[in-house]
Task: structure prediction
Amino acid sequence: MEPLLLVLIVALVVVLGVGGLLLARRSRPGVEEDLRPTPPTAPVDTLAPETAPDVALEPEAPPVEPEPERVKPRLRDRLGKTRDAFTGVFSGIASRGKIDDETWDDLEEALILADVGVPTTTKVIDAVRARVGAEKVSDPERVVELLREELVALLTGSDRALGRAESGPSVWMFVGVNGVGKTTSIAKLAQREVDAGHRVVLAAADTFRAAAAEQLATWAARTGSEIVRGQDGADPGSIVFDAMSAAATRGADVVLVDTAGRLHNKVNLMEELKKLRRIVERTDGALREVLLVVDASTGQNGLAQARQFAETVDISGVVLTKLDGTAKGGIVLAIQSELGIPVKVVGVGETADDLIEFDPEEFVAALF
Amino acid sequence: MFDALSERFDGIFSRLRSRGKLSEADIDAVAREIRLALLEADVNVKVVKALIARLKERANGAEVQKSLSPAQQVIKIVHEELITTLGGTSGKLTMSPKPPTVVMMCGLQGAGKTTAAAKLARQLKSQGLQVLLVAADLARPAAVEQLRVLGSRVDVPVWSVPEDGPQDAVEVARTALDEAARLGRNVVIVDTAGRLQIDTELMLELKQVRDVVNPTNTLLVVDAMTGQEAVNVATAFDEAVGLDGVVLTKIDGDARGGAALSVKEVVGKPILFVGTGEKLEDFEPFHPDRMASRILGMGDVLTLIEKAEANFDADVAQRAQESLSKGQFTLEDFLEQMRQVRKMGPIGNIMKMLPGMPKEMKNAEVDEGEINRIEAIICSMTAAERRDPTLINGSRRVRIAKGSGTSTSEVNALLKQFKQVQQMMKALTGGGKRPKLRGLAGMDLSQLQGGN
Result:
């Protein structure tokens, strides 16, 4: 018997019993019966038949309208529209002509505005302060340069290549909270792989969100990938399993596994993810990447997400999405600094081509 | 880190406890901590500055109430200020005097517009309104299909255009109004595509949709996990289409949700609803007091109390209080209380709402089956046994185990643990005095209610 359980219940009893009593005194007699229906425990629609996923791998039609030319976007171009802000923070710093408390406050504020977070900001600023002291810097513009150098140094040195299996298909799993852009990111990587002449299988293991498989199927058709899918509410494990065996028999090079978005504090859903990972791991050496997809507009919760997903499924890298807006995505600095998990690719738009490599220098240049 | 806020304050104030008033120096000392705390909660830097200025003004010279420590006093002031900033509770849409009432959802990609639209539709339908959902997100693949599926789940019709026809969001919106008139619908909810606020083309489209449907309520959907960017998003959307309210989604995560404060401060329009889970009924009116507690890391005590209020039987609570204060908490009381608590929902969920709970406890997996077994064991005892477990000898144990479908070792384990719990309760209640809730909540429960 779980020893904590009784203690937990009693703690609840104490708090609620007394809280409830205070209220009862204040207001009205308690309601006799709970008339609200109890919520179903399983997250999936249990009525949905446990049908085997549709394994008939139809290579979906090739891209319907091949675009005349594909120009690979660069971070710099994409960020052009937001870089005007650059002058804002630093003209102030430069114009004061000396380094004072205000300089440091401005720098700190710039980093926090970019969602870097207080601990990482403090760490970086302290490092810059130390260098300013040691190198006897007096030019405020030099301070900005030093800050850039520190930030770039924090981000460099990581291997950002996506892992490939020595033989057989390489599996890349995509995980993350709801609405960060997992499915779209998969479409972009599928496009890149197909362009490189690789055979790609998409596993539609998000069977929870309505029409998620439909969304992925559209992308499969547009990118010329194959898809393995089941019905809404089907067991995602069975889809991953079928995708693995389909990929093996069809000689696919890459399997991209789309998983349902889940908040990292939902224990059951995180356990489900663990199970998906185990299914992939049944094929030796196939699992090469577990990528956490992070929305650039995410605040400090991004670090909690990374921590929890890392603990549960041991993520190997981050896909930073929606960096084409004004959000800076500074939380990836905290993720790199605290957890040592690098950004591997960056999403900057809504088409299959809007995928770019992560370049620390360009990223930092665009931060503030 | 925020659970530590009150502790940090306590540290600062331990030197000052004897003083009767909060001095400017005291306030400055804590202002930095509050600033850090708010920044950690993703409140926008500029909003934090404004807030701190207001706080200093309010706190300066404030009397320290007898019942509170200076730290608690400051937290109370901060808490109240946040509640004021976050605005009132409403959870009500503006209904148009000339139906249909049109609701337009807008926001960034992935904020949760489609889900929020379906949840809102479900809620309005349950209030007896005739709702029409409109699928005007033609950008994301299968977004229309998603809304159709959700619409059928909540049994609300969805207006959309065929995939092979022209894909024009403005046209969808225009025809939707005719459809609403034809079907005699009095509320129309328009789901639009997610867009970046700097995407001029798509923002123009949004304006055109707005001009066509002339919404009574233009709602910005904001992810509770949003960081500093929330201010830019809210400002831009407000300037472009004029917001009437905000829906805050995904607050069932563990983000502190400072974005709510940022958006409210910038837009000045009420936060109407919050999305609290993946199921379509997980949609509630916004409560500024709870959000304030959450941003300050004080746990969701008020939700808890509200749940307790709805489910607790006053007599049972009274009895428990009496036996607690007498230091005689029996298995019978325990059973009764446990049943009360379970009426409020899964124990694990309730646990998460408690402030000041250690992380291990919050994240402990509570197996409801285990609780069922405990209940079965206690139910298999006679009333006398429940009142005095020492009666339970070997043969009684076997009988109880048989009756509850468990094993004698499980019965033993329960008895042993209950004994420990009894001792713990005695220690906690300090032999007759009121239970020490302060230790649990960092702040007195009654105080929180007082701030309500």
Observations:
- The CA atoms of residues 271 and 312 of chain A lie 8 Å apart.
- The beta strands of chain A are 170-175, 200-205, 226-228, 254-259, 287-295, 317-321, 343-347, 355-357.
- The first strand of chain A starts at residue 170 and ends at 175.
- The radius of gyration of chain A is 25 Å.
